[in-house]
Write a structure and sequence with these properties.
The chain has 226 residues and is mainly alpha-helical. The chain is built from nine helices and six strands; from the N terminus they run ββααββααβααβααα. The chain has a two-stranded antiparallel sheet. Strand 1 (7-8) and strand 2 (14-15) form a beta hairpin.
Length: 226
C-alpha cells in the first residue's frame, strides 16, 4: 500500500492520516476539511497522535469522536464550548446530558439507509416520503442519513394531526432566511482556513440564540391560544 498504508503506533493501534480520515467521513460530512480537523484540535475537542516528524495520526476512536462532534454541530447546532463539556463528561464516565437538548446522546455513528429501509423504520408511506422530499425537508438520493430518518418520523406524527409536508414549506423558508441572516452577520470572515473555522463557530452560536428566541416566541403564541 506504500505511503498510504495505515500506520500502527507502539500500542498496536491502527492510525490514519488526515487524508484517510477525510475519505472515511466525507460521504457523511462533505464539508469536512483538514483545516476543520486542526481547528477541532485547537479547541481541545480532539487530541490526535503525533509522529516523530510531527504529522497528525488518528485512531479509530479519534475518528468516532470527530464523527460525534460533527453530528452535534450539524443536527443539534451546539457551540464548541457545549460540545467540549459534553465530551469531557463522557471521558470522565459521567452522565452526559446536553443542556440544549436535555437528552442523552449516543456515540453511534451516522447510518445510511436505503429508501425501503427508511420507509419501514419511519413507518411512512411512499407518497409521504415523496411529498417530504418535494417540500425540501429531506434531500433526495439513493441513501438517507439519521437526520432524514428523524425528520420523516416527525412528519409521520404531524400527518396524523393533519399537518402535511406542504404545510412545512414555510418552516423550510424560515430556516433559509435565518441562514441568510447568519451569513450576512458573518460578512467577510471566511477569507482564510482559520477564518472559515471561526465563522463556523460563530454561525453555530448565532443559530443557538435564534433557536432559543424562536422557541420562546412559539411558546408565548401557544399560551395566548389557550
Amino acid at each position: 500500500m506504500g505511503v498510504a498504508k495505515e500506520r500502527e503506533n507502539a500500542q498496536g493501534k491502527t492510525l490514519f492520516s488526515i487524508g484517510q480520515v477525510l475519505a472515511k467521513l466525507s460521504t457523511q460530512f462533505p464539508d469536512l476539511t483538514p483545516s476543520k480537523l486542526r481547528f477541532f484540535e485547537d479547541q481541545d475537542l480532539i487530541s490526535p497522535h503525533r509522529t516523530d516528524s510531527g504529522y497528525r495520526k488518528y485512531s479509530a476512536e479519534d475518528i468516532d469522536r470527530v464523527r460525534l462532534i460533527l453530528v452535534l454541530q450539524r443536527d443539534h447546532y451546539l457551540p464548541h464550548k457545549v460540545i467540549r463539556q459534553y465530551l469531557a463528561d463522557l471521558d470522565a464516565g459521567k452522565p452526559a446530558v446536553l443542556p440544549a437538548a436535555r437528552a442523552q446522546l449516543s456515540t453511534t455513528p451516522v447510518t445510511s439507509f436505503k429508501r425501503a429501509d427508511l420507509l419501514e423504520l419511519a413507518k411512512a408511506t411512499e407518497s409521504l416520503l415523496t411529498e417530504t422530499i418535494s417540500a425540501g425537508l429531506i434531500p433526495s438520493g439513493a441513501l438517507f442519513d439519521d437526520s432524514s430518518l428523524d425528520t420523516l418520523r416527525r412528519v409521520v406524527e404531524l400527518s396524523q394531526v393533519g399537518i402535511e409536508p406542504r404545510h412545512l414549506r414555510t418552516l423550510k423558508s424560515s430556516v433559509q432566511r435565518e441562514a441568510d441572516l447568519i451569513s450576512g452577520a458573518l460578512g467577510g470572515v471566511k477569507k482564510t482556513a482559520a477564518g472559515r473555522a471561526k465563522a463556523e463557530e460563530q454561525a453555530t452560536d448565532i443559530a443557538v440564540q435564534l433557536n432559543a428566541i424562536r422557541t420562546t416566541l412559539l411558546r408565548k403564541a401557544l399560551n395566548e391560544l389557550t
